User: Fold this.
Amino acid sequence: MPYRKSTALVRLAGFFLAIFMSAACGSVGAAVGKHAAASNVAAGERIYRQGIGTDGKPVQAFSQTDVPLSGEQAACVTCHRPSGLGSSEGGYYVPPISGPLLFSPRKLDRLRLFPQFFHQVQPKSFDTRLHQPHMRPGYTVGSLATTLSEGVDAAGQKLATIMPRYRMTDADVKALAAYLHTLSARIDPGVDDHQIKLAAVFSDQVPAADRDAMLGTLQAYVKWRNLHLHEDQSRKGFSPYSRSEFVPIERSWSLSVWTLKGDASTWRAQLDAYYRANPVFALVGGKVDGSWNGPSQFCDEHRIPCLFPDTDLPAWPPSHAGYTVYFSAGLALEAQVSASFIASHEAGNHAQVVQIAAADSYGQLPARIFQQTLHEREPRRQQSLITYHDRAELDAALKADAGHPDRLLVVWPGADVTTAVDALAALQPRASLVFLPSRAIDAARKAATTELAARLRFADPYELAPSSHVKSFETRAWLHTRHLVIDHPLLQFKEYYAMSMLDAALFEISNDFYRDYLIERIEDESQKDMNPGIYPRLALGPGERYAAKGANIVRFAPGKPSGLTPVGNWIAP
Assistant:
């Protein structure tokens, strides 16, 4: 009996052990399967975005039957865009290849095709292609391989020769298919059936008057836009086959205000906390006191569009195809323009350049970029850089190093512009020319003597005569009818532009609420004349993140409406 009893216990223990091992092996197998699937998707994303095959080598392809392409040149993202929802240019319609559309039978979707009819003047063959799209069944991995290698679609119809013919392995095709299944497959956070959630970011050090002017414009736009949507929704069928067709898929907007407090090193954690509590579809407008590096990193990590914040210090070095879209590169652009002007300015060909820069990021970043740009243009030019921490050090630098009339002086004030301008006005450095950033114009206008003002030069990316733009009248009228006092026109015009650009882009994306697609539509919409006169030129190309790409060097001119006049030509470094 004792033996038989122990044998039963052993068998029972073995039974439970077998069950445990089976479950454990199943869990391990599932984990391995998930890891393999994730690895395959990641490999497919490299093919799609970088043109790098599963073997780590550049993908090879031919376009127009004989034009060789390799690596990034052959990457799908070049034409089909990060969203996978396609594009149109130069008479060619590039169809969407995101998972839900590629692996399903093609349907004639009027709303999705609608924007393509009006973006550019296209040849008749383009319109015919849109009106009579080739129907096909959903793709499989096998038919996708045939399309990539032979240029025929899932129905056996020949594709345009601009579509590359690829040399891909079976592993490449399977990985690419795995990634395409995930591409624009789920609506991004911040959107539900009724609402699109937005947020504006401000730091608590932004002057209250600036914040109120900007936030008032943002909130007024949301209210105005939602009112129009409510009116459209209450009049069903008011405009057959036109705008009313879009009304059922439009959403109202909500705008949250994310206020960043304390030191900039804590901003990232604060942004993460705001987002966890209230996921938004996009950030729009806003302003912080200091660098936009923290918000930019936050947006890139979460893939959240951040549209036209007001900042002198965008994230640097610039991120190609990042998720923050800026008006300009701020002080970095002004540093490049000032250096380019000095390198080509006849009167300054022999002069030593002295930079005096504040110790903070407002001084050090542009000083470093200026020094690098001037060295690239004129390697033999003598340069020196002096950093100051307070007014006493600034005064000492101005007395000792900028007192020679054959020198060019470049001053990069810190966050406190007034201190630098007051020091210049008090000490009257004898340098032949004194260069300052655009953020110092107002302070210099008030403090500089006539003699000093004649030698001051500013790198200014803004429009000198904004009232000459037709859109500026429209913008002022809009602000007035919203009962907004135009006491900070530059800031208010910027916010109006950001919101109107967002409005136009959201209308164009139809029901495809994907963040990458929103940025792509903004790139396209920026080609239209929506600039209310804040910058001479505003436009974005695919992957570009600075809409204003140049600046003038200006001097004071009391007889001009703006009190400024250009010196030389527009400079786009």
